[in-house]
Every structure is written in structure tokens, then in C-alpha cells.
Design a protein that fits this description.
Largest sheet: 7 strands, mixed
Strand content: 15-25%
Number of helices: 13
Number of domains: 2
CATH superfamily of the largest domain: Type I PLP-dependent aspartate aminotransferase-like (Major domain)
CATH architecture of the largest domain: 3-Layer(aba) Sandwich
Number of strands: 16
Helix content: 25-40%
Shape: globular
Distance between the termini: 51 Å
Radius of gyration: 22 Å
Strand order of the largest sheet: 4-12-11-10-7-5-6
């Protein structure tokens, strides 16, 4: 065992007691960050409240990312703090194997009540990627139990992103996606073209033709279709027509293929409806939820399905769904989720998201005239500015920090997914900063 000097193991005495230069140096030498090379620039955060992050040097940044779309109520919310503190005083965790507890039951009730019938079976898991893994297992075990083992592949959409674990990677875009380095190591799935008909444009029946041909040709080997309804997220921030989703639902029914809706990024109101599926009045066979589920307080996700699918899986060879995380249905996370959902419902979220959508559409429109910009699009509390050239992520992020905002561009996309509680004044600072920075490109 390697010994360390005493100060290396000292407890954090608070932001003022730390040597932040030393901490950042250690971070850059030893800590991985998401999709970043070792040593990439980082900005230490010492506190967060409302829509602002406080850096170690005292600067305050307006957060336009909701901590990757999760902190819909902002930070340090007293109601969420109270719920987590109260649960911590009773029980931080207990295994879910053979035991249950109030927060899990309360959360399950809310999810069943808020999602469309017949979705009524709830699997509580650790993260969005795991929720997708569980959904894929559900589909595969369903067909195994029905003695159709040849139905073992998935049909996904190009431009998709469904997570970082291996089954989830297999249904992300295989060419432009983040996981193409793993080609040949993950299951080979089928991919339809990204839906070409934009959300706000008239429906074009030809937009579903290639998808229809694929599902018809491969129906005997397809366990499920998986997609992000209406709004593709990390794969390109693309918003497509709700009729496409209706057509997919009808084709799945016609060809005996399950439909998995990945609402990890879009659930809980982000697109202007509680679920993005609601734009098309479509109910999937399996639903994945995450990110905003706990209001950004704890990692938690859920995979929901129907009583019929659950019953068939239970009659299969294993007699159960073959998944069970150690921290499944963590009581702290469930308590945070219950409080977040109750706060969302009580807080007139639809009016808040509608106001954000209108303001984003109005204020980002100025970016259309910039030479560096190729497209601007808005759906609900999501605003996207797409540039003509790939962006220098590190340089652009630093410029945004210097301007007092926190944004995390990628590829050719600068986008906003602010907390729903953001004020019009703070949102205007975000949109104006984007326009000013991109005007200099």
C-alpha cells in the first residue's frame, strides 16, 4: 500500500481552505472527465444555487446546461434539499433484493400515474445508459420467452445517441456517433436514416419510406425499434416531425416488433410536453426515463413496460428479468425523484417551458444572419445553433466562461437546455452571449 502525506488525506475544510491550483493540477494529472483527454481544461466549482455556478475564483456563471439537462429546478432548491435530508436521517440505502421502502413505492406510483397506460411495470436503475440496457434486455427476453429467439436485433435511427454501455453503444449512430471506435465489438444492429422531415414543417410521407422498407424486410429478426421520440439529443440535437413517430408505431404493430422510447433527455417536460411521445399521442411498449428524474440531485433512471411484456418475461427460462444493480432504487435518489416530480407538477412547468421556448426562438433568431451559422432550431426548452464548421470546444468553452456563462458545445452545435426556473433576464444573457461569441468566429 502506498503511503501518502497527511495533508493528502485531509478532510475538505471548505472552498477557502483549499489550494485550488494544486487541486486542478491533480485533477488534470489523474481524473478522467467525460469525452475529454487527460489534462483538458477544467473550472473548479465550489457552490451552486438557482441557475448559477460559483467558481473557486469567485466568478459566477449562468448555467445554460442544467448539468447535462438534469437540474430542471436549478441548484440548491430548498424543497429538494429537505426531501433528501429527511430521507438521509432515516436511511441512506438498503438493498432492493427482497426488500422495499416508501420512496421506491411512492416514486413507482407517480411514474405509473404520469405515464400513459398500459405502462405500469417499473424497473428502477442507476443511469440512462443502464435504463437502455434494461430496455434491450426486456425486448430480448420477451421474444426468447415467446420462443422466437431469432428476433434478437434492434432497429435504430442514424443520428441517435442512447448511452455509453455496450448494448446502448450498439444502437448509437455507427458512423458519426461517439462510439465508432468499438465497431465490430458491439452487436451489429440495423439503422434507418435520420428522419428528414423537420418538426415544424409539413409532413412528407416519403420520410418514412426507408424505415418502412427496413422493418418489413427484417421483421423476423427484429426484437425492437429504439428511438429518441421527436428530439434526438447528443447525436445531433435534431427535431423531427411527430407524424414520423406515429408511422413507426403503426409499422411496429403491423410487423410484430416492440417499440422502445428513449426519453432520458426529453422526459419531464423538456420538449414542451411531459413526454416527447405526447407530441404524437404515441405510447411505446418500453419507456426509458432518467436525467431530470431526480431534478439533477442523484443518479437514477427508470425503465417502464406493460403488464403483458412483464408477464411473458416471467414465464421465460430465467423466470425473471436478468438485471439487478447493487444500488437499485436507492432511497435517497427515490426521495429526490418524488420531490422533484411533485415540484414540477406544482410549479406550472408547461407555462415556464413555453415562455423559455418563445424567448429562445425570438432571441436566437439573430444568429441566422451570422456567417458562421448554418441553422437555428428550437423545441420547448431546447435551443440549438448549428455552425458550418466544427467548433474548437476548449477555446469556445473558455470564451463562454470569460463571458460569465456555462455552455458545453460539441461538434458543430452550441445549444441551450437551461433550468426551467431561469429568469427572462438570465436567459437573455445566455442567448446574447452565444450570438456575440459566434459573431467573432
Amino acid at each position: 500500500m502506498v503511503s501518502r502525506p497527511p495533508d493528502a488525506c485531509a478532510q475538505d475544510g471548505g472552498p477557502q481552505s483549499r489550494d485550488w491550483a494544486r487541486d486542478v493540477a491533480f485533477d488534470q494529472a489523474h481524473l478522467w472527465h467525460p469525452y475529454a483527454a487527460m489534462g483538458a481544461p477544467v473550472w473548479p466549482v465550489v457552490a451552486a444555487d438557482g441557475v448559477r455556478l460559483t467558481l473557486a475564483d469567485g466568478r459566477r456563471l449562468i448555467d445554460g446546461m442544467s448539468s447535462w439537462w438534469a437540474a430542471i429546478h436549478g441548484y440548491n432548491h430548498p424543497l429538494l434539499n429537505s426531501a433528501v435530508s429527511a430521507q438521509l436521517g432515516r436511511m441512506a440505502h438498503v438493498m432492493f433484493g427482497g426488500l422495499t421502502h416508501g420512496p421506491a413505492v411512492d416514486l413507482g406510483r407517480r411514474l405509473v400515474d404520469l405515464t400513459p397506460a398500459p405502462l405500469e411495470k417499473v424497473f428502477l436503475c442507476d443511469s440512462g445508459s443502464v435504463a437502455v440496457e434494461v430496455a434491450i434486455k426486456m425486448a430480448l427476453q420477451y421474444w426468447q420467452a415467446r420462443r422466437r429467439p431469432t428476433k434478437h436485433r434492434l432497429l435504430a435511427l442514424r443520428g441517435a445517441y442512447h448511452g455509453d454501455t455496450f448494448a446502448a453503444m450498439s444502437v448509437c449512430d455507427p458512423v458519426t456517433g461517439m462510439h465508432r471506435l468499438f465497431a465490430g465489438l458491439v452487436p451489429e444492429q440495423l439503422f434507418a436514416p435520420r428522419p428528414a422531415c423537420r418538426f415544424e414543417d409539413p409532413w412528407e410521407p416519403a420520410a418514412i419510406t426507408e424505415f418502412a422498407d427496413l422493418i418489413a424486410a427484417h421483421k423476423d429478426e427484429l426484437a425492437a425499434v429504439i428511438l429518441e421520440p421527436v428530439a434526438q439529443g447528443a447525436g445531433g440535437m435534431w427535431f423531427y416531425h411527430p407524424q414520423y413517430l406515429r408511422e413507426v408505431r403503426a409499422l411496429c404493430d403491423a410487423h410484430g416488433v416492440l417499440l422502445i422510447a428513449d426519453e432520458i433527455a426529453t422526459g419531464f417536460g423538456r420538449t414542451g410536453r411531459f413526454l416527447a411521445c405526447d407530441h404524437a399521442s404515441v405510447t411505446p411498449d418500453i419507456l426509458c426515463l432518467g436525467k431530470a428524474l431526480t431534478g439533477g440531485y442523484m443518479t437514477l433512471a427508470a425503465t417502464m413496460t406493460t403488464a403483458e411484456i412483464a408477464a411473458v418475461i416471467g414465464r421465460g427460462e430465467a423466470g425473471c428479468l436478468m438485471h439487478g444493480p447493487t444500488f437499485m432504487a436507492n432511497p435517497l435518489a427515490c426521495a429526490a425523484a418524488v420531490a422533484s416530480i411533485d415540484l414540477l407538477i406544482a410549479d406550472d412547468w408547461q407555462a415556464r417551458v413555453g415562455r423559455i421556448a418563445d424567448q429562445l426562438a425570438r432571441e436566437l433568431d439573430v444568429c441566422r444572419g451570422l456567417a458562421a451559422v448554418g441553422d437555428v432550431r428550437v423545441l420547448g426548452a431546447i435551443g440549438v445553433v448549428e455552425t458550418r464548421e466544427v467548433l474548437d470546444l476548449a477555446a469556445l468553452t473558455a470564451r463562454f466562461v470569460d463571458a460569465g456563462v456555462w455552455l458545453r458545445p460539441f461538434g458543430r452545435l452550441v445549444y441551450l437546455m437551461p433550468p426551467y426556473v431561469i429568469s427572462p433576464e438570465d436567459l437573455s444573457i445566455l442567448t446574447a452571449t452565444i450570438a456575440a461569441v459566434l459573431a467573432d468566429l
